[in-house]
Amino acid sequence: MSVSSTGRDTPDGNATRRPSEFAALEAIPVTTDDNVTFVIRVLPQDDPTIPVALILPAMALKAKFYLPLAKTLHASGLSVAMCDLRAQGESTPGLDKKSAFGYREILEVDFPAVIKAVRSRFPQAPLYLFGHSLGGQLSVLYAASAPEDVAGVCIIGAGSVYWKAFGPKRWEALWKIQTIGLIARLRGYWPGGMLIGGAMAGGVMIDWARHSRTSRYQPRGTKRDYDQLLSELAIPVLAISLDGDRLGPRSNVDFLCGRMRSAKITPWHLDDSAGVAHLDHFEWIKDSGIIGSAAASWIIDGQLPAPSR
After folding, report:
1. Contact criterion met (CB below 8 Å) for 107 and 225
2. Which of 37, 56, 68, 215 could form a Cys-Cys staple with 162, CB 3.0–4.6 A?
């Protein structure tokens, strides 16, 4: 008789493994018209009218990376949903060399299906998007195209990657991002490395590199003018920048905010004085207790909490 990883014997002689905390969450499967399946993980509040925050990941990161943030948002009084981007994490099919999708498919196929499912699960709740890096850029673009679906947007480490917005690092950003775009175009995908640790779909990286080169959001195949829509976006936006973020520095976040000329933007720059120890593009997740509770206050009360003295 075998012993399972939970310390319990199994009568059939096979080891069983207790699901991870993330995998044990309520799951809502969603399949798009082009047969991509997503799993939305949910932490609900008992009150169905409480706002719900939908967390959307960065490039090559899985939704489960954001579990500490989700738990803080939930403990602070919000319902929370998490979902991977296409070909990341629990979404299927996974990434392969034939994954030619780009921004358009994510914005115009995936997000409508996912958000419809979240709104069906929480029909009385205002919906807020909480996006990190690419997830943040896509969040504001989606909100600009469908403002009736979204009550507000929180972004963190999510700036325009327009090369001139990188300030002193602009020439480095230009050649690195355009090299990534060129390799993605030639190979059909980006294998990972240099700025982006994981593999990414070629179409996403080509759209990303085009935006970096031109400053415009022109996803391949779209009929929408996202730049015009972005300028007309008039909902609240909490824009969080990190002092130690070299991938999404404050200058790039500010540049993106400048494109949202009609939005009600609350900028929040985190440095040593904010009580946050981890100011990196990724490691901020270790300070989810501070960042998540403040973001929840912004969602619930319409403003950040007063700084402690």
Report:
1. no
2. 215
CA distances to 202, 293, 306 from 283, in Å: 26, 17, 24
Residue 82 φ/ψ, nearest 5 degrees: -130, 145
Name the DSSP class of 109. Answer: I
Contacts of 260 by beta carbon, 8 Å cutoff, 6+ apart: 140, 144, 230, 231, 233, 237
Domains of the chain in start order, with CATH, are: 26-301 (3.40.50.1820)
pLDDT per residue rounded down to tens, the chain (309 residues): 333 333 344 445 555 677 899 999 999 999 999 999 999 999 999 999 999 999 999 999 999 999 999 999 999 999 999 999 999 999 999 998 777 899 999 999 999 999 999 999 999 999 999 999 999 999 999 999 999 999 999 999 999 999 999 999 999 999 999 999 999 999 999 999 888 989 999 999 999 999 999 999 999 999 999 999 999 999 999 999 999 999 999 999 999 999 999 999 999 999 998 899 999 999 999 999 999 999 999 999 999 998 765
Cα-flanking dihedrals φ and ψ of residue 277, to 5°? -85, -25
Sign of the C-alpha dihedral computed for residues 116, 74, 77 and 159 taken in this order: negative
**Neighbour count for residue 34 (Cβ, 10 Å):** 11
Question: Residue 97, Cβ neighbours under 10 Å: how many?
Answer: 12
- Are 41 and 26 spatial neighbours (Cβ–Cβ below 8 Å)? yes
| CA–CA gap between residue 42 and residue 20 (Å, rounded) | 14
pTM given for the model:
0.93
Q: Which residues contact 263 (CB under 8 A, 6 or more apart)?
A: 233, 234, 235, 236, 237, 257
In 3-state terms, what secondary structure has residue 170?
Answer: helix
Distance (Å, rounded) from C-alpha 191 to C-alpha 197? 9
